[in-house]
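Board notes (copied after class):
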Amino acid sequence: MSLAAVIMFALFLGACGIGVPIGFSMIASGLVYLLLVGGDLGLVAAQGVHGLFKSFILLAVPLFIFAAEVMTASNISDRLLQFVMLVVGRLRGGLAYVNIAVSIIFAGMSGSALADAAGPGKLMIDMMTRNNRYPRGFAGALTAASATIGPIIPPSIPMVIYGAISGTSIGALFLGGVLPGLLMGLALSIQVFIVSRRRGFPVEDPVPLNMVRRTTFRAIPALMLPAILLGGIYSGAVTPTEAAAVAAAYALLLAFVYREMNPRSLYASLLGSARATAIVAITVIGALFINYVVASERIPDELGNWIIGLGLTPVAFLLLVSVLFLILGAVLDTLLMLLVMVPILMPSVRALDVDPVHFGVVVVIDMMIGLITPPYGELLFLISGVSRIPLAELIRESWAFILTLVIALLVIVLFPDIVLFIPRSAGYAG
């Protein structure tokens, strides 16, 4: 690696360390690299624009973001919450199970952990902490932990980006995330079962019988969204990008059918989606140029040769990558790791004959656990901000959930069929 590349990476890390947005940090450090090597400064724009416009699949990202914004603004999650309360609310610690179940259901709609935490997650925290029924730190930490399931069960914004970067089938990635997401939910539920009895969490009042039918019918239209998405993709009726457009249109239709969206909230959803998309786009542009430098410096080839020289088995490689991503996830942004680290590691994935779908799902799970790992823990900061729960309380309660999710991750790494069974059943040949 050249001195110019070393200076570029040092400047990038320094800029991130003083709070410069990641996208701007990458672009600025990339410009310094070009100045040092005497390159054309227009390469930054050329790489970014070309990369954005040549990838049709990336168009799914703003569409899924908009769908999540609409569902959050229109209180669709409230109807789902009432339905889940009907199903699992009567168990001891029922609201904790409801929290997990709502995250699993909402995962099939938004594809975003942050949208899950900011929308139904905030509502769940309010319900759990009302009248001091559950400790604030536990409610917030559980909400953050269950929100990590969002990008694992399809649709998934990180999987769309991973597929665009690695050339992996988005449909296979979506199917590959189903069982791991459910396993994560099961692992969290087992933890809740143990903790609920040890701490004596309350049992909720049963839902009146006359409310059962009404609650179920009110939730059915929202519950249809995952079925429409996956059915459309795997029947061949729509591509994943077109499915994202269907998700956005269906969410908007539901919002108006439920009469829970007005022009003001629609404008707020559009504005929030535009802002989030702009952040993603700027970060992608910066990452595309960083990846151009990485490829020019032949860093992936050198790293790949080094890893092959270690004589690692595919499982050992995945365990090593998982540890690396778990450490980086505690201090770095998720999108940054996805856009920069995945292209560097893909040659090693191919050389070791690791299935790219299995690798992609493992990497996304790693990054989601990073969202609740101190000191960065983006989900912890978000939960603290929307619920006013002190960050120290969240961190104290989050370690047990992190351990539970890491155990689930270990099982997924050691048993690839958990990821690959459904894709292979659907015809995927990795």
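Comment from the instructor: The chain has a mean pLDDT of 80. Residues 40-425 form one domain.
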